[in-house]
Amino acid sequence: MLAAYLILGDLPTMAQYIGGAVILGGIVFSQMGVQRLNKTAPQQQPTPKEMSEAIAFKGV
Hints:
Layout: H1 2-8, H2 14-40, H3 48-54
């Protein structure tokens, strides 16, 4: 939509404005959720034994 406006000079319709706003709102909410998860969940590294046990397929 932005490229069409800048390159072609084509004005966006109301539906395109609404769709762009919904997409931008979704991106904002997604980033807020990611930041909340990173803030509340402490990052702890698994031990090598835990990592080897978590792998279900170990060969042919």
